[in-house]
Protein 1
Amino acid sequence: MRAEIYEKKAGKKADIKSLSLPELAEVLADRGEKPYRAAQMYEWMHRKLARGFDEMTNLPKAFRESCREQYAYTSLRTICVQESRMDGTKKYLFELSDGSLVESVWMKYRHGNSVCISSQVGCRMGCRFCASTLDGLERNLTPSEMLDQIYAISLLTGERVSNVVVMGTGEPLDNYDNLLKFIRMLTDENGLHISQRNVTVSTCGIVPEMKKLAEENLQITLALSLHAATDEKRCRLMPIARRYSVAELMEACGYYFEKTGRRITFEYSLVGGVNDTQEDGEQLSRLAKPLCCHVNLIPVNPVREREFVQPAMDRVYAFQKLLEKNRINVTIRREMGRDIDGACGQLRRRHRSGLQDFGGNETC
């Protein structure tokens, strides 16, 4: 994908940080630059995490100045940081070059540091329990805008990121081409070189793109936001269910495992009185049993604009035990950042509306 393609997405200037190393080498060769110049520049952008051309001190000053005039350089501006008093989870609100806002989350685990990033500004999927969809979709993020969420957090925390989850605002498979470019650049040996097995991509269930992703020769984890085991109940929670049935989803999950050998994760948000009954658990067990999958139970994070509530924890544990009894691999997601704007889209929406005081430690 050449620079001119990203020029349309970045305004008048080409988005140089969204180019792979071979693409950057081709672009700079067209300018008459030596082959090694691309490697130098790529290292500054994707390994040293330079925040602008001025930091690339081993490049000629005249070259840096010409690049500044010709290319857009993605460098997100930190608007707000919330830190949980409970577990140290940090939620970041970043501003893009056009003034759009996106959220990212940094989580510290024993096995390493994870960052959850957004793939779109807003979302058009309309899931009933999610704050990200309340204002609809504004636009897709470019590969550089997805990458720079990780780069910015790495610099702000001073720590290495070992796991990346594309599970923030937006539907990743609704931004398929940019997502794929992001994954390849993130895991490339010339960049951060994060293992593909440490990358998880979430989807609400866009079947054609799930099958397409299975053909990309990647070793990432695919997480399906299932949330209900029947078409009727899933339609109440997720409008996308009107387009793709549960049967179609299960067929796509089987296809993904067949092509990649990677176990599917079922994300299941437990909503009190909606999808947390014994019958729901039995139906989920019947769906999951034929597949190589893992069920991740998520007590729903309440959103003030929605009526959904979290079940009592004894009900959550009972649901887990029912699945285990049916020999389903299941865990309850560890709650991170509960005392801050934990749900996707909450911090962005609160900042835009001017609301204050949501708990935690906050720097804005």
Note: The two ends are 37 Å apart (CA to CA).
Protein 2
Amino acid sequence: MELRKIDKTNLWEILDLSVKEEQTDFVDTNTQSILEAYAAVASGDVALPFGIYHDGRPVGFVMFGYGQTGDPQEPRVAAGNYCIWRFMIGRSCQRQGLGRRALALSLEYLRTFPCGRADCCWLSYEPDNQGARALYRSAGFAENGERCGEEIVAVKRL
């Protein structure tokens, strides 16, 4: 499994990935995420979008952030830390252990501190998204009592 930066060679195959219908309320489309990444970078913020590949084929998408963006709904933990801003595994690739492996790979990447040192990584998820909650807990993320908008914030030390 590997992470590949999103560029003109893989953009369309990543945009073609989608989650199951019942998951669409929990995660933005990859198109929305990549547009948001472009806008963030254009505004001077950090957004690092990657395709997740297994055996040479695209199976998911992950996007990282670093530090604060000035969003009034942003949790305090954002200051000086990494964020897994988006994380998805395509519908045909789910229930195969790829999400767990991709999350571990994502944390390995963040431990290289690509944008600077940090104590932890945070992420957020919809309260009704029990699948995400279980996955993140199994990887060592713990809810810290903060919210990002309506979403629950969970944190893992790097």
Note: The chain has a mean pLDDT of 95.
Protein 3
Amino acid sequence: MDDLNLLTKALTALDDKLAACMKCGMCQAVCPVYGATFMEADVTRGKIALLENLARKMIDDPDAVSDKLDRCLLCGSCQANCPSGVSILEIFMEARAIVAEYKGLSPLKKALFRTLLPNPRLFAALMRVTSPLQKCFLRQEENAQNTCRAPLLSPFLGDRHMPPLAATPLSARVGRLNTPKGKSRLKVAFFPGCLGDKVYTDMAEACLKVFDHHEVGVYLPDNFACCGIPALASGDMDGFARMVRHNVNVFKEGSFDYIVTPCSSCTATIRDLWPQICAKTDLPYRYRDATNELSLKAMDINAFLVDVLKVRPKTKGHPRGKTKVTYHESCHLRTSLGVVQQPRTLIRMNAECELVEMAEADRCCGCGGSFTLTQPELSRRIGQRKRDNVVASGADVVAAACPACMMQLADVLAANNDAVTVKHVIELYADSLK
């Protein structure tokens, strides 16, 4: 009975937020899923119509409700374009939590979100075992994206082209850092994210090179956990709370001015979702207070370099280097954080690079975290549109400011045998430093 009462309260609270939607359809023009399917049920107002009858529909067919809600990238484009200011991302994540509570999580998701990701020591131990074994499952490809394929794991991963795990995670490679402030008089807590720690370690080390160049002190714990967005996107509030609690305990040990990340999804999660979601959980007040304090310090690394350190190109105009670089705008970076020009400024800092704009630079690449696994065909269709724009730009390199986007870009480019290299913006900027 208590569970039923909690479910009723959750549905009532959701109904109050749904009332703000006017069904105007402004979300149609910007929704990447609708742009691929042209189905009303895939656009935001269609999903909101579903949610308005959530209780009855869950009882009739909870799997169908879950599938409809999963056909959303949580990119935030609809929310940014909503004239009524509806908190669409909050609504969808709460709806997923309600459905997950009603259906229950799979044993795999429980193990991942509640045991592995909140326990970085355990995760690191598993990495030490699995990383040497990946050669047994992955087949290295010869392409510009340096991707692999996993034929034996195709029932789970599909026909994806993916980067291999790093031989040594960043946390093991550089260990714990706690360097003092230099001439910048600033110190940052560096949060590389899961992909920065375990896949794109060169990108994470490029960030450390940049901090060192600008004499910024760095606090880097060697036992940070996932930011929590994968659990939250799957509706697992308990797993999300565990990851937040662990990270709060880790970061409270350091003294710093900003939390800087090279992943826009991590930044948006720490800045917006940590305090927003934790306020609705049963976490002790000290954690809620801590997330409010930490959220004020969260900043994307592109914004930190340009807005705080005032990094600017030394020459006026647009340099025309030998390497043509086009820039993909990650959804969370643009719509959630409002970071647009700063990555372009950093690309222009590299005299070897010429920035060439692609069409629809701000359109989603189709990654959306687990969306690539739950909706692989739809993800590839959306990604193909992005790939076409990248190739049409004539660029040698496509730069992004989100590791998840980098994975998706590498996948669709490799699938088409394209010669375009995928880089993080910070890698290009770090290459320009002497």
Note: The longest strand covers residues 323-327.
